[in-house]
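tl;dr need the bound structure. longer version: we got a ligand (iron/sulfur cluster) that a collaborator sent over and nobodys looked at where it sits. i said id run it. heres the input, straight from their email, havent touched it
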Amino acid sequence: MTKSKSPTGRRLALIKLGILGTLSSFPGTTIIASTTRQDGGNDDLPHLREDDQRARALAYTDDAETASARSDDSAYCHNCRFYAGDGAGQWAACSLFPGQAVNVDGWCKSWVAKTG
Ligand code: SF4
């Protein structure tokens, strides 16, 4: 019997809460419950900048290939559980960075494999 490496819904919720708690500790940061549109479209969202304080805290990069802390070569924003894109564009919302779009080829330390 193989055990799934993907976190359960409850464990994933706890991970998100912990990450959001960490991000919300930065001065001037307001965490909004969710600004992700259901259709994954994010044409109107500003792009997350790598030098953003929250992005730096999670070592976010627009190009996963350049991420020295990345241990899984197959990990990208587009196959992350928190990514809301539908594959149509280069940028889409991430539930960890409300109100901003991340790059489909990006990555950060909070990457969790998308399932299902
Ligand atoms: Fe968001 Fe996942 Fe990309 Fe991190 S790896 S920025 S959590 S979509």
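gonna send this back to them w/ a short note. The first helix runs from residue 9 to 23.
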